[in-house]
């Protein structure tokens, strides 16, 4: 269908389901075991109810936001997702170009299908990129990658901590992997007794011995702000602050790692109770299940600085760079409308009182 007929984020999923190969769609859309957490991520926003205020002159609205001090035209970014080339020949390059046009931030995956330098070069000079890291059992390789990232002007490192081992994603396992190679990590996907899971084979280099003591090393080598991606409890949020992290991305990997874990919104509520002081100390981002402008505003109202969008961006690559831009514009447009209908004109005005959380608290 013509791109202009796609009106909402979910429309891109339908196109991707028809257009992508069965293997690609299975890899992108899959989640761990019974898909409970993947669905709950989306459900969590439906169970947060907005409390709009009226008569507040909402003619002019601004949605721009500083994310880790970097300018962004919107309070959302592209979450890191592996192997965008399966969706479009330009893969992560198309995302980088669209992010340049739209002035939003892309977090580049450690398992991207293009080398880091090519993705950065595809953008414009000075464009903000963050890099998502999986620590390699061969630490030397991680040191090289971190040095490269810093020299390329990457602004922050997101260490993924919710996947010391890959989740069990049956839809991905069921379809043959056909020797796919990931450019950045060099991992080769094959079929074996467990199936043909791309995610599982790609994860083989990840060091499952990683622990809190290693963060000092990552900070020292990268010389960049370090975020933890995949924090799921207030207890670990506190530990992240104690270990000198610049921030945390509350995430359960889009429900792809451990199934039946709580959604990021539940963790955010837990933090308000257990460690409210953390909100002033760390940058706090969330991802998983963001599909509407209303979802974005709810997360911001409850204290997130920014939110990440994963699968929808991969699906939007059905239309290459233009699709990524169109998806971004839909989300921006929905966020503007949500703010006007909620009675605020700047995202700094978003506050917890805008959201009735009682349904989510009783789930
Ligand atoms: C991911 N995600 C991910 N995360 C990460 O830290 N490194 C990675 O390489 C990947 N790869 C990846 C591939 C695919 C196909 C998906 C769908 C996801 C997780 C991603 O960053 C993010 O946390 C979720 O996608 C957010 O959930 P939604 O927006 O997809 O619901």
From TrEMBL:
Main location: mitochondrion
Catalytic activity: (S)-lactate + 2 Fe(III)-[cytochrome c] = 2 Fe(II)-[cytochrome c] + pyruvate + 2 H(+)
Keyword Transport: yes
Cofactor: FMN; heme b
Keyword terms: Flavoprotein, FMN, Heme, Iron, Metal-binding, Mitochondrion, Oxidoreductase, Transit peptide, Transport
Keyword Mitochondrion applies: yes
Enzyme class label: oxidoreductase
GO cellular component, one term: mitochondrial intermembrane space
Location of the FMN hydroxy acid dehydrogenase domain: 1-360
A single GO molecular function term of this UniProt record: heme binding
Subcellular location: Mitochondrion intermembrane space
Entry EC number(s): 1.1.2.3
Subunit (UniProt): Homotetramer.
Family the entry assigns: In the N-terminal section; belongs to the cytochrome b5 family.
Listed name of the protein: L-lactate dehydrogenase (cytochrome)
Species: Talaromyces rugulosus (Penicillium rugulosum)
């Amino acid at each position: 269908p013509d791109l202009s007929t796609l009106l909402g984020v979910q429309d891109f999923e339908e196109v991707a389901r028809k257009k992508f190969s069965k293997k690609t769609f299975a890899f992108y859309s899959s989640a761990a075991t019974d898909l409970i957490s993947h669905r709950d991520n989306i459900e969590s926003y439906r169970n947060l109810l907005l409390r709009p205020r009226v008569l507040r002159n909402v003619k002019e609205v601004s949605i721009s936001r500083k994310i880790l001090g970097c300018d962004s035209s919107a309070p959302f970014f592209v979450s890191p997702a592996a192997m965008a080339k399966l969706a479009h020949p330009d893969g992560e390059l198309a995302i980088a170009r669209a992010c340049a046009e739209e002035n939003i931030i892309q977090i580049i995956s450690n398992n991207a299908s293009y080398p880091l330098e090519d993705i950065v070069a595809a953008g414009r000079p000075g464009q903000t990129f963050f890099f998502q890291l999986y620590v390699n059992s061969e630490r030397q390789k991680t040191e090289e990658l971190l040095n490269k990232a810093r020299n390329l002007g990457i602004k922050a490192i997101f260490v993924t901590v919710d996947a010391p081992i890959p989740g069990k994603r049956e839809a991905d396992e069921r379809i043959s992997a056909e020797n796919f190679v990931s450019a950045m990590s060099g991992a080769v996907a094959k079929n074996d007794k467990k199936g043909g899971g791309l995610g599982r084979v790609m994860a083989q280099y990840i060091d499952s011995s990683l622990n809190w003591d290693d963060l000092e090393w990552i900070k020292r080598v990268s010389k960049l702000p370090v975020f933890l991606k995949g924090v799921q409890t207030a207890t670990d949020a506190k530990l992240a602050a104690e270990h000198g992290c610049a921030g945390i991305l509350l995430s359960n990997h889009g429900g792809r790692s451990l199934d039946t874990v709580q959604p990021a919104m539940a963790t955010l509520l837990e933090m308000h109770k257990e460690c409210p002081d953390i909100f002033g100390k760390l940058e706090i981002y969330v991802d998983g299940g963001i599909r509407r402008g209303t979802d974005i505003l709810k997360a911001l109202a409850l204290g997130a600085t920014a939110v990440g969008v994963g699968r929808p961006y991969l699906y939007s690559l059905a239309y290459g760079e233009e699709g990524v831009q169109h998806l971004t514009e839909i989300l921006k447009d929905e966020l503007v409308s949500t703010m006007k209908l909620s009675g605020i004109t700047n995202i700094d005005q978003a506050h917890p009182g805008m959201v009735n959380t009682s349904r989510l608290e009783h789930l």
